[in-house]
Amino acid sequence: MIGTVSVVPDGVLAYGLQLPVQALSLRTSMPWERDGAGPAELVQVAQACDRAGFLYVAVCDHVAVPREPAETMSTTWFDPVSTLAYLAALTERVRLMTNVYVVAYRHPLQTAKTFATGG
Fold first, then answer.
1. Is 22 exposed, middle or buried (0-12, 13-18, 19+ CB in 10 A)?
2. Terminal CA-to-CA distance of the chain, rounded, Å?
3. CA 106 → CA 63, 86, 101, distances in Å?
4. What predicted TM-score, i.e. pTM, was given to this entire model?
5. Are 17 and 51 in contact (CB under 8 A)?
6. pLDDT tens for residues 33-63?
C-alpha cells in the first residue's frame, strides 16, 4: 500500500492565501491593488502571511486571456515562477505554490529550466 504524506499534522488547521496584486483580475482584485500596487505590496502581504504562520501563499497563471473575458479578468498576471522565486528570497517559512500553471502553453524544456532556476 502506498502511504500518503501530509505537510500538516493531523488535527491542525492550516491557512493559506491567494496573493493579491499578482493577478489583477477585476473579478477578484480590490481597488487598492489596481490603484498602483506592485511588488512592494506583494512582498508586504507575503511577509505578513509568513509572520502569521500561514502554511502557504499562492499565485496563479494565465498566459493568454481570450478577448471576451479579458475585460473582467484583466491581462495583467505576473509570471508565477518568477514571482515565487522573488518571494522565496524575502520570506522564511511560508510555503510557496502556484494553484494554476498552464503547462501546455510552454515548451517542456523551458518549463523545466524555469522551475529549476526560478525564472
1. buried
2. 37
3. 9, 21, 10
4. 0.83
5. no
6. 888 889 999 999 999 999 999 999 999 887 7
